[in-house]
Amino acid sequence: MNVPSRPTPLAEPVSTEGVVAAGAYVDGRRVANIAISEASSWRAKPGHVVWIGLHEPDTALLGAVQKQFDLHDLAIEDADHAHQRPKIEQYGEALFIVARTAQLIEGRIAFGETHIFVGEGYLVTVRHGASTSYTAVRERCESCPRALARGEDYILYAILDFIVDNYSPVLESIHDEVEGIEDDVLSKPISKAQIERLYMLRRDLLRLRNAIGPLVEVCRRLEHDELSMVRKAMQPLFRDVTDHVRNIQERIDSMREVLAFAFEASLLVGQAQETAVSKKLASWLAILAVPTAVAGIYGMNFKYIPELQWEYSYFVVMGLMALACAGLYRRFRRLGWL
Q1: Span 188-223, pLDDT tens digits
Q2: SS3 call for 121
Q3: CB 125 within 8 A of CB 115
Q4: Going from the N-terminus, what domains does the chain have, and what CATH number goes with each?
Q5: Could you say which DSSP state residue 103 is in?
């Protein structure tokens, strides 16, 4: 197949800072790396699909992309300002989709966003914050031209599937840490630092669940709604993404329950150890109370105290105290208090 000649730019070139990749595809094969200013002319060619990836672009670059594909002002405004909830919106024949991404950075879950514009002959992704590069998605799609030749909706599926799959490494890292804490809980009370970590993990998991929850509705619409950009043959693939998201939700709920159990179990273990210490202290206090009581009685300053003048009174009293203490000690040992 002959590679088309590069068309004359329709506008002044814009800064390439923020452009990760921009290519034109025919039948699933990349035929050219293009400039943003050339995107609309490449898209207009029959059978061509333009795939552009941006990372935290500035307003000027987003404006240039908007011009090339006639994107809606509200969608561009959302893409320029992050912190959007996962959603799907239709502007004419084009779709605008927001998905949340997640990465584990220094033990905490960091969140990012991906904004996706999909229309006839083009797909544009805009990444903000913590997110794995979609270069791997592009390479995987390019390695299978037959699949990539399905069009824009297949690229959309591949990106959403990649986003959801990247939740798993985050959960696996947290799961390993949770298992370690769970093992420690039953052997000893957890420290203040571990309690704080349990709280942070539970909070991060809740934030992750809230971040990906709306993605179920996004995939449901892609699967069931009569959207012009999604062919019926592609709808089962989005059902698969929905299943993955629900599986992630179940894993999050399971780990939050384990963390709650670990916290409660730690409290119970701590209370049990405190109770054991209290029993030991009470036992020794009871044992010591016998000689203390006797010494207190015979230490009173009265002239006539029974057995005070008896020659063997000291030895008898000491013997009785020893027997009483030994009896109490044996009793408490039998009860498991000592």
Answers
A1: 666 777 778 888 888 888 888 888 888 888 888 888
A2: coil
A3: yes
A4: 19-269 (3.30.460.20), 277-335 (1.20.58.340)
A5: E
- Distance, in Å, from the CA atom of 250 to the CA atom of 174, rounded to the nearest integer, reads 14
Q: 119 with 69: CB under 8 angstroms? A: yes
**Tokens in use for 337?**
């208090």
Report the C-alpha gap between 225 and 228 in whole angstroms: 9
- Helix axes 73-80 and 59-69, enclosed angle (nearest 10): 150
What amino acid occupies position 276? A
CA 6 to chain centre: 45
C-alpha atoms less than 13 angstroms from C-alpha of 264 in its C-beta half-sphere: 6
Backbone angles phi, psi at 158, to 5 degrees: -60, -40
pTM of the entire structure? 0.73
Residues 263-285 pLDDT 10s: 777 666 667 667 777 878 888 88
Give me the phi and psi of 172, to 5 degrees please: -65, -40
